Amino acid sequence: MHIHILGICGTFMGSLAVLAKELGHRVTGSDANVYPPMSTQLEAQGIELMQGYEPAHLQPAPDLVVVGNALSRGNPAVEYVLNKGLPYVSGPQWLADHVLQGRWVLGVAGTHGKTTTTSMLAWVLEHAGMSPGFLIGGVPQNFGVSARLGGTPFFVVEADEYDSAFFDKRSKFVHYRPRTAILNNLEFDHADIFPDLAAIERQFHHLVRTVPGEGLIIHPQAEQALQRVIGMGCWTPVQTTGDGGQWQAKLLSADGSRFEVWFDEALMGVVEWALTGQHNVANALATLAAARHVGVVPELGIAGLSSFKSVKRRMEKVAEVKGVTIYDDFAHHPTAIATTLDGLRKQIGDAPLIAVIEPRSNSMKLGAHRDGLPASVVQADRVYWYAPANLGWDLAATVASSSVPTEVCDSLEAIIAGVKAHAAPGTQVVVMSNGGFGGLHGKLAKALEE
């Protein structure tokens, strides 16, 4: 079968393409922006990529068109598909029908930590010899690929609350029907499609409604939004994590790199790993609970976590130049910025810490999270914010109240000059964006080299 994917370079759609290819289909795809790392992963798989959304890409007609959620009415390829009556489907629906059907699905949902926790869980199952399939919205370093079919009934999927397609406004995760569901946390996000937190809670309850009575739902005990979701009705056993929960961690080091795992007041073992931050400790507890549900004893799960390498672009060390360390991080929400910087601060002690932040997500561009930004960076010693001319709201006014020395820059050159002036040996620089940030990491490393 010839499948053509519209929006193929998105992390979800690109992973879908890998699975379709592995199933034996001929896969082609088009996107407005064909660029690495997804383009290189796809080309290595023998998948033909086309730049732009020309109707000519759909001639001769493919057997099926999978439409990404970034495409809307008015897009030339979408209009062609509709006018010619070509068969089309959303990405989540295709995944549900052709990959997840009949499998034990482990879904990881939540505002933060989905990609890391999905990667963690896939690795723990792999370490336990369970050869799971997975689809992850990033590239886990333990696997080096974002998706695979796997060799057993188990399939781990990053379960996103974003909508499915222009013709299906339900959250993607409603299609997945997990037997084991992790609900990591829940805050307001995706201001481009959700009016308020209550609207997102309703979508999460739609997910809860699909989990079977013989399944398991895992969530942090202290997360009030998730308590409200469960309170709307739950027909599935629940296990809780964190403060007051059945699964608890006792830190042996302040940065979260060593901690005890307790379940029902019994010590299960000690995790010693390369990750830091309270958020990753929380991700680990949820992972161990989910793995136990499919038969991985906590002791074996803990051993798996100890050899877990994080996901690309999650506090990934990308350069060390003249004693200055540069990290690449995906954080794009005040909570994620705060927890990431807090974890690094606890790891590095009093070393100088510079944060460089691009407010790039759709919610950030709409200014939905701006009130939380000044307080999110208190662990840094200096912050550079990137405010391109088309941002649409006054970033400088928003961060003027910050207690940390702050500069708002309208160019990468200004950021590089600022960092270069203040970075001495021992300085840690964290570059935060959910996009490519104009290749800032490499340019910064080169400038420091000079």
TrEMBL record:
Biological pathway: Cell wall biogenesis; peptidoglycan recycling
Keywords of this entry: ATP-binding, Cell cycle, Cell division, Cell shape, Cell wall biogenesis/degradation, Ligase, Magnesium, Nucleotide-binding, Peptidoglycan synthesis
Recorded catalytic activity of this chain's protein: UDP-N-acetyl-alpha-D-muramate + L-alanyl-gamma-D-glutamyl-meso-2,6-diaminopimelate + ATP = UDP-N-acetyl-alpha-D-muramoyl-L-alanyl-gamma-D-glutamyl-meso-2,6-diaminopimelate + ADP + phosphate + H(+)
Gene Ontology annotations of biological process type: cell division; cell wall organization; peptidoglycan biosynthetic process; peptidoglycan turnover; regulation of cell shape
Binding site for ATP: G110, T111, H112, G113, K114, T115, T116
Any Pfam family hit: Mur_ligase_M
Enzyme class: ligase
Known role: Reutilizes the intact tripeptide L-alanyl-gamma-D-glutamyl-meso-diaminopimelate by linking it to UDP-N-acetylmuramate.
Family designation: Belongs to the MurCDEF family. Mpl subfamily.
Name by which UniProt lists this protein: UDP-N-acetylmuramate--L-alanyl-gamma-D-glutamyl-meso-2,6-diaminoheptandioate ligase
Source species of the chain: Aquipseudomonas guryensis
Native organism taxonomy: Bacteria, Pseudomonadati, Pseudomonadota, Gammaproteobacteria, Pseudomonadales
